[in-house]
Amino acid sequence: MQDKYSAMKCSCLLNLSACLLKMKRYDSVVTSCSDALNIDASNVKGFYRRGQAFTRLNEFDQAKQDYEQALKLEPQNKAVKEEMDFLMQRKKQHDEKFAKAMSKMFGGPINN
After folding, report:
1. Could you read off the pLDDT of 17-53 as tens digits, one per residue?
2. Structure letter (DSSP) for residue 76
């Protein structure tokens, strides 16, 4: 009975996280997926959705860890591979934007 309850709770948490993702409530997605992963530590959807939320929160290292874990569990998962590519793109854009801001802040002419 406990196993059925746990499986149902995990499923509900993952469905909730899908809804929250659409609503762009990324912190809540992380919480729901983490709760689901506490029930089933090998749930690919949990790692995938939490990775999506981390990506949108610019938590790139955590997102990468989740995607890598999902790919360990399902190496051929196309959706996870596509999200990993999106993560790398977004991280590159973020880094370029940060570098540009820093060069403006510190790269101006030096007055003697």
Report:
1. 999 999 999 999 999 999 999 999 999 999 999 999 9
2. T
d(CA 17, CA 21): 6
pLDDT at 98: 81
**Run of H or E including 6:** helix 2-22
3-class secondary structure per residue, 58-108: CCHHHHHHHHHHHHHHCCCCHHHHHHHHHHHHHHHHHHHHHHHHHHHHHCC
pLDDT digits (tens, 9 = 90+) for 63-88: 999 999 999 999 999 999 999 999 99
Structure tokens at 106: 């510190």
Distances (CA, A) of 17 to 45, 69, 74: 10, 18, 20
Complete DSSP assignment for 16-45: HHHHHHHTT-HHHHHHHHHHHHHH-TT-HH
Q: What is the pLDDT of residue 14?
A: 98
Cα→Cα distances 44→16, 27, 49, 96, Å: 16, 19, 9, 31
